[in-house]
Amino acid sequence: MSAMVMGVDAGATTTRCVVATLDGVVVGRGTAGGANANSSGGEMSAALGLALAAALGTVDRTAVLGGILGAAGSAGAGRERFRAAARQAWQDAGLRGEMDTVTDLEVAFAAGSAEPDGVLLLAGTGALAARFWGGVLDRRCDGYGWLLGDEGSAVWIGIRALRAGLAALDGRGEATVLREVLPAYFSIEADRNEDVAQALLARAFAVPPAELGRLAPLTGEAAERGDPVATAICARAAEKLLHTYDTIGPARNTVIAGSVLLNPGPVSRAVRAGLLARTATPPRPALDGAAGAAALAIGRLTGAPVPPVMHARLTGSTHDPNRE
């Protein structure tokens, strides 16, 4: 059987894994719940193990020569905790090849670009910008988590939607469709504003912070329907993200990642337009973080960066020779 590698992208809400051959053909995929120590809750090694097992399926584990596992929240103080969880999951899966861990930034940048230099702008559960030189993370801005930063992220948007809904309920804020959208999302059937507000509090505090990011698409939909409060939240999110990018950018090779920027909606449109105005080049989407991790693993094994055509095959991106 052909030699293979594994790539893992462990996010706050979803962990994704791919198995790929050294020529960039994906032969297995697996998913599981989030594996972020700061916002997912639960046991990291368990989520990693489920994703690995699903991707491996009937694959001969002895053919897996190496792997890269990347995760949000694995920088700084979280590095050793994630490394320990990754090592445990790797061993439990019966894998004996070389395994290494990186942050979600390396994985996302590698998913969007085969080039070693550029800037990543990420807005999913969290948000940040990062500059890469020679494939190495040189500088980052934000990414401080839902409590202290992540400005413009899905959780940032969700929290502001909740604040706006509560303010509309108790009379402090403007009328907004979020006053009806949020109770419907949480299956709240109370009639009195006070009862609805208390139920919203109970639901919001009962879930991990990462789950509040699921309110971002609802906020975007409300903005698309013309709700002024939701529109203002989305516009402010885009401003925050572009400001974060400006702190590090601009760069001709800009990669965007995360659900807020990859899915259609008012924030994605505004940010993409802003990046195009700044760089005169459309940003490259990081479509498959796990495949980006696999590309890094192939590079580690072969000692050379993955060629653009192979990168496109592996990640599902579009190879544009004019950008090489």
Automatic annotation (TrEMBL):
ATPase BadF/BadG/BcrA/BcrD type domain segment(s): 7-297
SUPFAM superfamilies, per database record: Actin-like ATPase domain
Gene3D superfamilies hit by this protein: 3.30.420.40
Signal peptide: none
Protein name from the UniProt record: BadF/BadG/BcrA/BcrD ATPase family protein
